[in-house]
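Raw record, unedited: Carbohydrate-binding protein CenC
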Amino acid sequence: MQALCTPRTRRTLVCLAILTAFASAPARAAETDHREFEATLHAPYKGDASQQEARTFTLRFAYPHLAQPQSIAWTLEVVAPNGAVVKSWDGKRLLSGKAVEVSVRWNGRDGDRPLDDGIYKVRMSATAHELVPIRAGGIDEEPVTETQEWDIQVGQVAAPDMPAFAPLAVAGEALPPWPPHGTAGTPVSTAGVQASSAPQGQVQMSGVARSVAATASLPYTVYYGNLHSQTNHSDGGGALSSCTGAQNPQSAALGPTDAFTYARGKGLDFLMASEHNHMYDGSDSTNTSASPATAKSLYQSGLSAASTFNAGHPDFLGIYGLEWGVISNGGHMNIFNSSELLGWEYNSSNQLLADTFTAKSDYAALYTLMRQRGWIGQFNHPSTSGQFLVNGVPLGYTADGDQAMVMCEVLNTSAFSTNTTETETSRSSYEGACRKALEAGYHIAFSTDQDNHCANWGASYTNRTAVLIPTGQALTTANFMDALKARRVFATMDKTSQLIFTANGHVMGERFANSGSLSLAANFASTSGKTASTVEIYEGVPGRNGTVTLLASTATATVTPANGEHFYYAKITQNDGNILWSAPVWVSQGAGSGDTSAPTVSASVSGTSTLTFAANASDNVGVTKVEFYVDGALKGTDTSAPYSMTLASTALANGTHSLTAKAYDAAGNNATSAPASFSVNNTTGATQLIVNGGFESGTSSWTATSGVITNDTSNAPHGGSYYAWLDGYGAAHTDSVYQQMTIPSTATTATLGFWLKVISDETTTTTVYDTLKVQVRNSSNTVLATLATYSNLNKGSTWAQKTFDLSAYKGQTIRVYFLGVEGSSVATSFLLDDISVTAQ
């Protein structure tokens, strides 16, 4: 097997998967995989109204799947703003099965002395110890410590000055045209915008539960939802009347459609059913009699349920995907957009109980697979130690992981809560682990979810993950995933509040180059009358693996960063104690010459059936790239003048459209052109039969071999971000990609078109080693015709358009089939993009 892993191998995951599969015995998931000590602290932000600053703290301890009873040693401290401990408690509790709670009453004083007004911290540390160590072949449980820390307010604290900020529109509302003022291409700062006559930093609305669009709002709509829950496809879906914990896999009554219906009825805009990947065999360990076909069919049924629900409810997005991994020597993570069931379990016939093998706890290999497939994920309830190990390092960084992982849960409510009034008090914070991931180099945004296992999806508390989608774009899976990839997300414990963090006009989630000063602003809005009690701006260095530091305790700050890489994010605590976290911005600071001049850019459109988008762009230093957007959706990028791209008119609906071009310079300055209006009118009755011809929706509508449809940045696609990459392994290999369609019997013409680029390390000019065949096959996969054969002899540095007549297949159901065969030890890659079949 080692021979397959040659120095020329491009996709190293293939080698890793082969070697892992042969080197390891099938793994088993068992209860020991899911032992996790859980310790939460509820600290009321303000004291009891009738007893000055007195309040009760609640500590809750649980430890699922205990091997034997545990002794829980805990300490609790109240810490003053200067770091001094003003009050402490400690104790022990026995934990044997059910969760236990400890109530600690505090009189709000330091002994007999009243405390000075201010923001204090309540800090809990809890350690689980075995009562008697297990020997003689048993399992020793190492002591496990969990910490939690929450701010509380003592006395009266002056509210911070906040920028006036009008909230962004939320689902179901629209914004006025963008930009509202200023010249085209000039970022419009939110700081200083007058929202209304309401108090600074918020918008008050009598009798209205959702925010009103403001004249100077950013061009995004906010969607609130929950990205972590289970149904009866794994260990969730338990009826509220009897749910006390995780369900036996696939035993509960309620499935994905029930979850989507419930969440929509509770006012959520989206919900993810994140099912445990190793429970599709109907077991929490390994069911050796399970059928691979049944497991894989269940996963596909979940994808279908989400698609069907979304088609009938365009105001809501149901998402179906995986919660991959185990707890012990692992770590749970969501994969949002996997079209495949991933797993490591085999039945007694040595059949994989999944579509694709992924080794348990091998996060580096999983990240590589996710990057190749274009899948994105979230670190779920992460720990600072013992989880997401790469080369033995917790939350260890890989470049593939950085592309694949887009979010980190900063807070979770109780997974087994049955609360339906949004008043759950048991919740855990994971900000320390998310900070560790940021310092490791991960570009992740914060999220907050509920991990519902009972049938109260999204209803246990008011916390939400908030996602920003460009106004005017529909709430679709593709647009939602694009927003997650852009890290346009904030986490909030209050579904009526917003936190939009900006840096020199760049919106949270962005990465940009900067020279000179950097102006940061935490913009806050509440539609329920809440105000900011504290605001903090944090700074860190990606890849430093150090400590995130507090930069400012004000809503705005202007700094000149040291040269190098930085990230910044904002955190706001409301006057009711609920917290919001922004996504970071990532800044590459250079000495530069202080260039703050944005490029100038204009856009134009020409052509009818084939549209040519062109841009004239210039800059005082130099333009680095131009992006082309149609109706706000990215269609392509060009990095060299003259800046242009082409697009088939059939890829757009008939009617009027708007083209804008966005130009960037080396300092990160950017400008967007004035819109150029154009019309599409395919009056000849042209019908586009290929769906997702540019692959921008990933594998949707296509059938392809593993890893073919990708957004791998090693190559530039013809348009957009995705393309099909066949072969390129430098070893004997076969790849294919096809789509099935019916050519109308009434068509007068039918034309296949696609763009092809051949990249080869072969030096011969006479011998064919590697081939790509363009074929027409029937629905039984019989070859009806080979339209063309391309090879390593066709290699080149540019994309070339190819067209073929399919009129002979009118009235037939056919497959447009691309077959790549690599037969030598030298790599040849066949790249395909923007495939169309047009019938007239």
